[in-house]
Amino acid sequence: MQVTRELFDDVMVPNYAPSKVIPVKGEGSRVWDQEGKEFIDFAGGIAVNCLGHCHPALVQALTEQGSKLWHLSNVMTNEPALRLAKKLTDATFAEKVYFANSGGEANEAALKLARRWAIDNYGDHKTQIISFKKSFHGRTFFTVTVGGQAAYSDGFGPKPGDVVHAEFNDLASLEKLISDNTCAVMIEPLQGEGGIVPADHDFMQGVRTLCDKHKALLIFDEVQTGIGRTGNLYAYQGLDVIPDILTSAKALGGGFPIGAMLTTTDIAKHLKVGTHGSTYGGNPLACAVAEAAVDIINTPETLKGVLEKEQLFIAGLDAINDKYQVFCEIRGKGLLLGAVLNQTYQGRSREFLNASAEHGLMSLVAGIDVVRFAPSLIISEQEIKQGLQRFEKAVAQVVSA
């Protein structure tokens, strides 16, 4: 059977609008489509392919586990899941881990846990959840409601209640909303879908203080910022703020679907047997691949390399901007970067994405005003330079159009 873009329209629900590019092979930071055209990958599957495509260690882990055991129900004890959980707790503030299949599921678990913790400890009145405008926390009805983009949650009928949104990086805005009825504040340490906006250090300190004052849990959504993306294993480690619950997914499996919720023993005890679950959560295949990914990423060499590559990217983007004057700011951290379009080019981020693809570069957008880059954490300096050369051609094309 021949697979074409037209087949998508015939057989798929139309909630996506994929490009005509159909990749068929990936190796490292390069991808080839059906026609054999080569792309340099600055998108990373939206910050998922942290070690590029088909990394030998991940292929080996998957192959070895695949010849042993594919699936166990959570009625059984699972070796790969326990090994991965131990590595995550050893490397973080956390003492307990819950495995799911995605970031949305990990966030769903975090929000349910926060509500259960608050009701058990303080009573039925303590259910308010505060998130931030322009945030993104997943596509389940609970998480999309907590996310601060109404366009994603409107149109499906009544939403889960007692959810409000503050202004990101505005502590006074949070202070007006938070009270002793608040059970949790959920925040991305660096807003991804909202435009690659880092949290200010003092703001994050203030959020932690307000949560402590009102006995509310602080939930860090590190689905996009976690697993080395910002130069720390998790972004909280560079902010001097320790959350009560942390969620992880995307890069955790290096491309294999897995999510995790991390927390302390005292908080975790409120998810008693039967209160939450997942058929595939902790799948042996996913956990084996994730363990291999964590082993490679959580090293001084890899994490230091992320920060070195960040500087290469910023210097290259600044040089392009000096020539074409299209960006007002380059922001982000590590290898989660956003080139913010200036007033002349506002609303045209997708034009830059499409032009990049024409010149053999995979990139991303973060809203209509930001071109986003989230490549492999181990992309080579040569590939960064080649990719930026292709991006410059794309910028020139848009500017001259």
Automatic annotation (TrEMBL):
InterPro entries: Ac/SucOrn_transaminase_bac (IPR017652), AcOrn/SuccOrn_fam (IPR004636), Aminotrans_3 (IPR005814), Aminotrans_3_PPA_site (IPR049704), Class-III_PLP-dep_AT (IPR050103), PyrdxlP-dep_Trfase (IPR015424), PyrdxlP-dep_Trfase_major (IPR015421), PyrdxlP-dep_Trfase_small (IPR015422). Keywords: Amino-acid biosynthesis, Aminotransferase, Arginine biosynthesis, Cytoplasm, Pyridoxal phosphate, Transferase. The modification N6-(pyridoxal phosphate)lysine is found at K250. Binds 1 pyridoxal phosphate per subunit. N(2)-acetyl-L-ornithine binds at R139, S278. Its cofactor is pyridoxal 5'-phosphate. It comes from the Bacteria. PROSITE patterns: AA_TRANSFER_CLASS_3. Its main location: cytoplasm. Gene3D superfamilies: Aspartate Aminotransferase, domain 1, Type I PLP-dependent aspartate aminotransferase-like (Major domain). The keyword Cytoplasm applies. Pyridoxal 5'-phosphate binds at F136, D221, E222, V223, Q224, T279. The keyword ATP-binding does not apply. It is found in: Cytoplasm. It catalyses: N(2)-acetyl-L-ornithine + 2-oxoglutarate = N-acetyl-L-glutamate 5-semialdehyde + L-glutamate. Its EC number is 2.6.1.11. Pathway: Amino-acid biosynthesis; L-arginine biosynthesis; N(2)-acetyl-L-ornithine from L-glutamate: step 4/4. GO terms for molecular function: transaminase activity. NCBIfam families: arg_catab_astC (TIGR03246), argD (TIGR00707), PRK01278.1 (NF002325), PRK05093.1 (NF003468), PRK12381.1 (NF009047). Homodimer. May also have succinyldiaminopimelate aminotransferase activity, thus carrying out the corresponding step in lysine biosynthesis. PANTHER family: AMINOTRANSFERASE CLASS III, SUCCINYLORNITHINE TRANSAMINASE. Belongs to the class-III pyridoxal-phosphate-dependent aminotransferase family. ArgD subfamily. This is Acetylornithine aminotransferase. The lineage of its organism: Bacteria, Pseudomonadati, Pseudomonadota, Gammaproteobacteria, Alteromonadales.
